[in-house]
Design brief:
It comes from Pectinatus cerevisiiphilus. GO terms for molecular function: carbohydrate derivative binding; DNA binding; DNA-binding transcription factor activity. This is RpiR family transcriptional regulator. InterPro entries: Homeodomain-like_sf, HTH_RpiR, RpiR-like, RpiR-like_SIS, SIS_dom, SIS_dom_sf, WH-like_DNA-bd_sf. The protein is an alpha/beta fold and about 250 residues long. The protein has 2 domains: about 5-75, Arc Repressor Mutant, subunit A (Orthogonal Bundle); about 100-250, 3-Layer(aba) Sandwich (Rossmann fold). Helix content is about 55%, strand content about 10%. The chain has 11 helices and 5 strands. It has helices spanning about 5-10, 15-25, 35-40, 45-55, 60-70, 75-100, 100-115, 130-140, 150-160, 175-190, 230-250; strands spanning about 120, 145-150, 165-170, 190-195, 210-215. Strands 2-1-3-4-5 form a 5-stranded parallel β-sheet, sandwiched between helices. The longest helix has 23 residues, at about 75-100.
C-alpha cells in the first residue's frame, strides 16, 4: 500500500476520490509505468480529479507519487526514466517558485509601455531558440520587436542604442562576453534592459533595470558541450507572454 488511508484522510475524500486511491494502492506495482491519464481512464474519472485525490493524501501531485515508487523499484530502466522526468519537474517547479510577482509585474508594465517603440532581443547559442519563440509570439501581439544572436549585429545595435529603446536578453548563465559588452553600451545611454537568466551571480544583472532568474539543474546530461536544458528560460518566456496576453484580453 503506497498511500496509507488514515481516518482524517478518509474524512476528506469523496467517494470518487477514495475509489481512485483504492485503485492506486491495488496497482502500486504497475504505477511507475503509468501516467495520470492512464489512472483517470482506468477509474472513469479525469486527470484533475486524480491529482486532487492524491494531494488530499498529503502527496504533492502524481509526479511525487511516482518518484516515491521509484526508490524501491528493482527495474533500473523504470527508475532511470522516473529520475530523468523528475529532473524536469524540479526545474519547472523551482523556476516558478523563484519568480518574483513584483518583478514580473514591473517587466510586464515596462514591455507594455514600449508597445509603440522599438524592442530588441539578444541571445547567443542554443538560447536563441528561446528568444526566437519569444519574439515570434511578441510579433503576434503587435510589438515592434527584433531578435538577433549574431555577435557583430548585437554589438552594432547596442552601439546605436538610444534612451527610448527597450532591450531584452535571454542567457543561461548570464556570462556571455558579447551580451555583457552590449549590456555595458546599453547602460551608458540609459536605455531599459531586461535580463532573463539562470544564474543569480550573473555579470549581466549589474546592468539590468529588471530581471527574472530561473532555476538550472546541476545534473547535466551531455557534459562535453554547453547544451544544458533551456526549459527554465522557456518557462520565463511563457510566463511573460501569457501575462501580456492576459493584459491584452482585459483591455478588450
Amino acid at each position: 500500500m503506497i498511500i496509507k488511508l488514515e481516518q482524517y484522510i478518509l474524512d476528506r475524500l469523496t467517494a470518487t476520490e477514495k475509489k481512485i486511491i483504492d485503485y492506486i494502492n491495488a496497482s502500486d506495482t504497475e504505477l511507475s509505468k503509468m501516467s495520470i491519464v492512464d489512472i483517470a481512464f482506468e477509474t472513469f474519472t479525469s486527470p484533475s480529479t486524480v491529482s486532487r485525490a492524491i494531494r488530499k493524501c498529503g502527496i504533492n501531485g502524481f509526479n511525487e507519487l511516482r518518484y516515491l515508487l521509484m526508490k524501491p523499484n528493482d527495474n533500473k530502466n523504470i527508475a532511470s526514466v522516473n529520475e530523468i522526468m523528475n529532473k524536469s519537474l524540479v526545474e519547472a517547479a523551482q523556476t516558478i517558485e523563484r519568480v518574483s510577482i513584483n518583478k514580473l509585474l514591473e517587466i510586464i508594465n515596462t514591455i507594455i509601455s514600449y508597445k509603440n517603440k522599438k524592442i530588441y532581443v539578444f541571445s547567443r547559442g542554443p538560447t536563441a531558440m528561446v528568444a526566437a519563440e519569444f519574439c515570434f509570439k511578441m510579433e503576434l501581439l503587435d510589438y515592434n520587436i527584433t531578435h538577433t544572436d549574431d555577435p557583430k549585429i548585437i554589438e552594432q545595435i547596442a552601439k546605436n542604442a538610444v534612451k527610448n529603446n527597450l532591450f531584452i536578453m535571454f542567457s543561461l548563465n548570464g556570462q556571455t562576453r558579447e551580451l555583457i559588452t552590449a549590456a555595458k553600451l546599453i547602460n551608458k545611454v540609459d536605455a531599459k534592459l531586461i535580463i532573463c537568466c539562470c544564474y543569480d551571480k550573473s555579470t549581466l544583472l549589474q546592468y539590468a533595470d529588471y530581471y527574472l532568474i530561473a532555476y538550472k539543474s546541476k545534473n547535466v546530461s551531455i557534459k562535453e558541450f554547453e547544451v544544458t536544458s533551456r526549459i527554465p528560460l522557456f518557462i520565463l518566456s511563457r510566463i511573460i507572454i501569457d501575462y501580456l496576453v492576459e493584459q491584452k484580453n482585459t483591455l478588450l
